[in-house]
Design brief:
It is a single chain. With about 180 residues, the chain is an all-alpha fold. It contains nine helices and no strands. The protein is globular and about 50 Å long. The N and C termini lie far apart (about 55 Å).
Amino acid sequence: VGSEMCIRDRFDLRKQIVDAAPSAPDPTTWDLRPMYSRLARTKQKTVLFKGYSWLASIEYERGDRKKQRAAWRAAWPHAPKIQASEWGGEVLLMYWNQREDALSSKDRSLARAIANHLLAEVEGDNAQATEKVRTWNLRCAACGLAVAGKLTQARKVIARAVKLQPGDGELVALAEQMSK
């Protein structure tokens, strides 16, 4: 019954997405209320993660950063372990790019949680990952820590990343931005 329910929830999610955007190329015209309502009623982690991730993308396209960030916050607790680092890293880079916005305490808390997850990956099970993966995790974690108000820790983390990839001009520029 559990897997049958999950399959039905996934099908319903796909149907909701198609219904929200039947043929309208402009996401500002899409009615997302049924999607939000559907997600509020489900308990399936995969459906919640994919649904809120999709909503975050659409809210971004609509230019509503507050709703985008709310969707990230709703998606994060349901992120599958295999996707948490990559998805979380992308979220932290978006937070960094939106750092001039007035971020809520919930946004800063999510940024800190994802950054800590990425740092645990570098130190823990993923310690044997490639240099490129470790550098990515450190770069994203530093961005998350910075927007969370943990600038001293962010600077230490970005310095570790630069040490791994000293020839990466973007990384060095990011470190310089964080040092100001």
